[in-house]
Amino acid sequence: MTPTPATCANPDCDRAVPRPKRPGRPAIYCSPDCRRTRGPRNPLVVEVQHPDISPDGRPAQRVWTVQLRRGEHAVIIANNLGWPTANALAHELNNLLLTNYPHNGAAID
After folding, report:
1. Contacts 24+ apart (CB under 8 A), 22-26
2. pLDDT tens digits along 18-36
3. Which are the contacts of 33, defined by CB distance < 8 A and separation ≥ 6?
4. Per-residue pLDDT band at 12 (split at 50, 70, 90)
5. DSSP state of 24
6. Which of 13, 26, 49, 74 would bridge with 69, disulfide CB 3.0–4.6 Å?
7. Which pLDDT value is given to residue 96?
């Protein structure tokens, strides 16, 4: 069993964490308010940029890569695109990421 931390995990709080009254995962925050103020995670960002080298011999300035990045983690979505295609894809990805869909457990539309 993991011991309960002595102080709240919120960096702006130094209050003690209450001991659990029943078995289960121990609390790491002193209150629900401290848990909500822990700050935002790294946002998911769509980036359009040039690769270091072009795989097909074109000048690197004419080749574009679209990738998703969160903090230091990144995944390339498409590579070797022209500028209009790369920007259109980035726009569509941003729309997908910023749209609030209802979470009702149904299949993806």
Report:
1. 26/1, 26/2
2. 887 778 788 888 888 877 6
3. none
4. confident
5. S
6. 74
7. 87
The tokens of 30 are what?
Answer: 């002193």
Written as six digits, the tokens of 55 are 């795989």
What count of other Cβ atoms lies within 10 Å of the Cβ of residue 27?
A: 18
Residues in the chain: 109
Among candidate residues 47, 42, 108, 43, the one with its CA nearest the CA of residue 75: 47
Rg of the chain on CA atoms, in Å: 22
| Other beta carbons less than 10 A from residue 8's beta carbon | 20
Torsion angle of the four alpha carbons 60, 94, 77, 86, in this order, in degrees rounded to the nearest 10: -30
**Cβ atoms 70, 42 nearer than 8 A:** yes
Angle at 26 between CA 8 and CA 18, to 5 degrees: 50
Highest mean pLDDT range out of 6-15, 42-51, 82-91, 94-103? 82-91
